[in-house]
Amino acid sequence: MQVVYSSATGDTLQNELTNLTTQDGVEGLLMLATPSVDITTDSFETTLGSVSVPVCGGLFPQVIVDGEPRTSGLLAIGLPTAPTVTVVSELSEASDDLDASLPAGGSEAAFVFVDAHADADGVGSLIDALFRTYSVGLSVVGGGAGRLNGGGGEPCLFTGDGVLEDAAVMAAVDQPIGIGVRHGWNEVAGPFRVTDADHGTIRELDGEPAFEVYQEAIETNTDAALHREDFFETATAYPFGISRLDGEPIVRDPSAVDDDAISCFGPVPEGEFVTVLAGDPDSLIGAAEQAAETAITRKSIADCAGTLCVFDCISRQLYLEETFLREVEAIDADGWPMVGALTIGEIANDGTGHLDYYNKTAVVAAVSDDA
Amino acid sequence: MPERQQRVQALYEIALTIGGKETLTETADAALAGYLRKLNCSVGGIFRATEDGYTPTATIPADPTGNALLSVGINRLEELSSEELPSHVKPTAGDHCYLFSLPDFGALVIGKQGGEIDTATRSALTPLNQKLAEACRNKLVERQLREQRNRFEAVFDAIPEPIADTVIKDGTEEIIASNTEFDRTFGNTTETPDTAAVPEVGDNSDRNPTQHNRPINTDESDRRITTETTCETVDGSGEFLFRGVPVAGEQAAEYIHLYVDITDQKRREGELQRYERLVENLPIGVYRTTPGPDGEFKLVNQGLVDILEADSKAYFENRPVSEIYADPDERAAFSDRLLEDGTVNDIELEFETAAGNRIWGEVSGIVTETDDGPIFELALQDITTRKERDQQLDVLNRVLRHNLRNALNVIDGNAAMLENELDDNDLRSHVKGIERRVSNLEELSQKASTVRSVFDQGRSTTTACDVQALLMRVAKEFEDRHPEAHVVVDTPEKSLYVNADARLEMSLSELVNNAVVHNNRSTPKVQLMTEMVDRDDETAVEIVITDNGPGIPKHERKAIESGEETPLQHGTGLGLWLVYWAMSLLGGDIHIDDADPGTRIVLRLPQVGADAQSQSDSGTGVAVNSGD
Questions:
Q1: Do A131 and B33 touch (CB under 8 A)?
Q2: How far is C-alpha B600 from the chain's CA centre?
Q3: With contact defined as beta carbons under 8 Å apart, do A289 and A331 qualify?
Q4: What angle do the packed helices B467-481 and B502-517 form, to 10 degrees?
């Protein structure tokens, strides 16, 4: 797939995108922007409108270009077949009847981006609807868009029609893809039953204040100490895990504490059991490497040439710091150009299992150039 | 985490997804998603067992036919009986499909790619599957009950009669539901249906229905109520057939009330009773018989009893209809004719009464088809008196036309011979007087026979007559016959048409003749005009005959205007009566006014359109008075 990475704005960016779309084999654009791009300007909206092919994308904390994380600029990925772009508006208000708003099946894969700061239950409803409708018939990859330190109410997604907030965008394509999903976090405490939760906020674990239980679990089982004032810095190393049989637990990343309630990126249903996870650089990097290997060895893309699209969690980068480059290198596979974004939550099914919304997880999609 | 603990957690979390949803589909959807999520499976379905096989209640993906693994599972499910579940299919390497029984509901199918569900977990799913089956069964029953309720509500509202569901609370009956027709009839109760009062139902025997509660059947074994009653409605009051049916259940004091509006039926019944009384008291015989040479009486009114001098209606029971005929064979001919034509009018037949007297009857009737075959509906009018008068008229006519005229001829001839033999002028003048009187009597005799001819033509005619042409012809005829007279026709150029036959020409000739012959002036003048007038939303043609004669004596005009003669008020001849009768029979009328000088007579007849011209007839084919 042909890509353009640009730090330009205005007419220059518009010209670069025009040049990309006029090249052979470019029928649609996947655009991944960094926070350095002000997508709220009229100029950016004009640029979106000028693109002659369907376009879909979002703003992410970082993008990956040629195997390197970048904190600025915009990455445009040319899609070899015209995508079917679908917008789900008012995602926070989404209900169980989302199925009807999804496009008919028939596509091989879909890139799905959601507003990471939308209501967790709305995101969960979208994920459920996608799985109910397509199951493994549609390979889905993507993640949460937005600024890491941002909040709700800021546009972070876009299509050719303009920018969006509290929404989801979906680009269904006819390229076969292979997907690998791994995180490398391991259980260190628990399980704890979620006895009081609402959306992505856990108020009680095993009938006790959630923060107290979480704090005790960390301080009892690790060397770390958890304080309210620097909650995020410590908690980012000890996410929650929602267990499932025959698979890695689904990671839920604690983002803040309010009194004793812990907020997470992604829904945590009341009644579920959660564990406290911990990781080390080697296990995380190893997991990312396995994800890449799984992706490029999937039967669906055997003997294909293509591009690795990586949606890795920004919190992994925050946790790994400078060693994150090792994770990117570990994902990098010979002969597969690597692009992608560091997301706030990841979306994927691996073509065989359940579709989920993950945190702190490396999602690698090997996208075939052939339709 | 130990595998066993992880399994217990997963099963617990699956259990949380079972139940608590509104509908069967939502219940199945949520549970299936829980199974797949916690077992990390990719496809699945919950199927309801029916007589025709398994019907999907929920599947992931939504279209199961597009997924090979799930399709394999569904096909396998169709091959197995419920006793053969659970079952396990492994269609391709690494892919597994598990089929579980959902007792008394159906089956659960789960597909897993790239791995399998271990035996212990599959075994542990059994109680969950039972819980899922129970939840689905409950929702299915709820759905069936809901559908039944919806059907009931649809029927409830679709019934075109007022219906209400009521309960008796603390001795007061209140409406808890009502249909649209109920609200329309008795008032809108939708705003406060729980407090709306049941329409009060009264006893028909009571003059004030609102003072009574609805009828209550005191028979505890059968609390159904059916009664006719009067109810207050938004439009006043109405007659209803009230049915109250208790609703079985714990709430014993609940009823369904149905009010069938029989107001129209009651009104029709009243009308029918009045009609029956009218028919019963008609002076004609009304009766119903079966067809056939003999026929059987099915119904007779008192009029027939009276006409046929029977002692009661029982006289006609088991008596063949042919027996009332003077000639019973005529019954067969009458029956055949009525069956063939479907209707008969004014058939004159001779009957024999129960007392053995012969009478004449005029019979009209129709054939009515009933479930038992055709029936004759007949009316018989006793025309014996009329027939006898006809006979008398025939004799009188013969006497006037034949006997009297022959006698007058003899008198006239003898008078002529006598006149020839007399030289005395005085005596000759006496003979002349005899001859004039004889001539008048001959004319009167002729008119008497014309009377019969006028009536023999019957009422009205469909022949269009060009009035202008007729007037011209009459005028010319009289100018030729009476050169001293001046007969003028003053009509518009456009022809006017009326439905008339030779009787109109006879009438005009009679009137013009009177105007000329009985005119005392040296030059009798007669003017014939036509006018179009609107009378009672109908356009009529008026033929106006004006003369300059002495006028018609008042006593003759009065006799014509009143339509009858009395010993003190009578005319001198038949001429005006002929015109009067002819115009009446043609559907017109005559008006006589004074003119200055003379008389103005107007003959008015309905105008007919130009499209009737093809039938135009100037008046031939019937013997009429020539007007001489």
A1: yes
A2: 48
A3: yes
A4: 40
Mean of all residue pLDDT scores within chain A = 90
Same domain assignment for residues A94 and A30: yes
Q: Which residue has the higher pLDDT, B198 or A64?
A: A64
Is residue A354 within 8 angstroms of chain B, CB to CB? yes
Q: Which residues have a Cβ under 8 Å from the Cβ of B63 and sit 6 or more positions away? A: A105
* Structural domain count of chain A: 2
A205 & A348 share domain: no
| CA distance to partner chain A, nearest, from residue B166 (Å) | 38
What does the pLDDT read at residue A138?
87
Lowest mean pLDDT among B214-228, B257-271, B361-375, B529-543: B214-228
Report the residue of B12, B38, B109 to disrupt the A interface, i.e. the one with the largest count of A CBs within 10 Å: B38
**Which is more confidently placed, B489 or B194?**
B489
The reply to whether A196 and A58 lie within a common domain is no
- The answer to whether A347 touches A355, Cβ cutoff 8 Å, is yes
What mean pLDDT, rounded, does chain B reach?
84
What span, in angstroms and rounded, lies between the C-alpha atoms of A145 and A267? 16
Is the complex ipTM higher than 0.90?
A: no
Residues A74 and A165 in one domain: yes
How many Å apart are CA B7 and CA B124, to the nearest integer?
9
Residues of A (215-244) whose Cβ lies below 8 Å from B: 243-244
What topology does CATH give the domain B160-267? Beta-Lactamase (3.30.450)
| Residue B209, min C-alpha distance to chain A (Å) | 55
Buried b (16+ CB within 10 A) or exposed e, B209-221: beeeebeeeeeee
CATH topology identical between B160-267 and B457-615: no
Domain boundaries, chain B: 3-150, 160-267, 282-379, 387-455, 457-615
Q: Considering only the beta carbons, identify the residue of B40, B62, B63 that sits closest to A354.
A: B40
pLDDT tens-digit map of B312-325: 999 999 999 999 99
Of the partner residues B5, B7, B40, the one whose CB lies closest to the CB of residue A247: B40
Give the sheet arrangement for strand A3-6, strand by strand. A3-6, A74-79, A28-33, A55-59, A157-159, A162-164
Per the structure block, which two tokens stand in for A231? 């909650």
CB contact under 8 A, B66 and A105: yes
Cis ω before A281 (30° cut-off from 0): no
pLDDT band at B222 (very low <50, low <70, confident <90, very high): low
Per-residue pLDDT of A323-337, as tens digits, reads 999 999 999 877 789
What average pLDDT does range B95-124 have in this prediction? 91
Q: State the residue range of the domain holding A337.
A: 3-182+284-368
Q: Look up residue B158 and give its amino acid.
A: A
Third-level CATH fold of B457-615: Heat Shock Protein 90 (3.30.565)
Q: Is A306 found in the same domain as A170?
A: yes
Between positions 44 and 73 of B, the ones with CB within 8 A of A are 60-63, 66-67, 70
